[in-house]
Amino acid sequence: MPFAAITYDIKPGYEKELTEIFGNFRRVPSSRVEDASGGQAGTIVATAVFLRDDTLVRVIEYTGDLEAVARHMAAQPGVQEVERKLKPYLTRPRETDTVEGFVATFRRSLLTTVAQISARDVPASA
C-alpha cells in the first residue's frame, strides 16, 4: 500500500499546542474513500503526524487514487477543524477552506516518494 506525506511550515516552539490539536482529531467512522459518483475510489488505512522544529509532516497510508483521497480528506469535518486550528501556527498560509483549495495545497505540500518498503510486500515464503 502506498504512503503519501504532506508538510506544514509552522512556527517553532508550539509542540504542546500542535500535539493537542492532532491529539483531539475526530476520526471518521469509515476508511472508505468515494469518487464523485459514490463508487469506492480507495481507503485511508492509517495516518501519522510527525513534528520537529518548524516542520510538521502528515503521513497517510492509503489504497486507490491519491486525488480522491485528498478530496475525501478535504470534506471531512475533523480535517477541516485541524486545518482551522493550525492557522495561527503556520508560517506560510494554507488555502484549505474549500475542497479545491485543500486539494491544491495538498499537491503543493506533497513530498516526493523516494522509497516505500513494507514487510507486507515480501512473499510469505521468503
Automatic annotation (TrEMBL):
It comes from the Bacteria. Residues 1-118 form the SchA/CurD-like domain. InterPro entries: SchA_CurD-like. The lineage of its organism: Bacteria, Bacillati, Actinomycetota, Actinomycetes, Kitasatosporales. Pfam families: SchA_CurD. This is SchA/CurD. It comes from Streptomyces hirsutus.
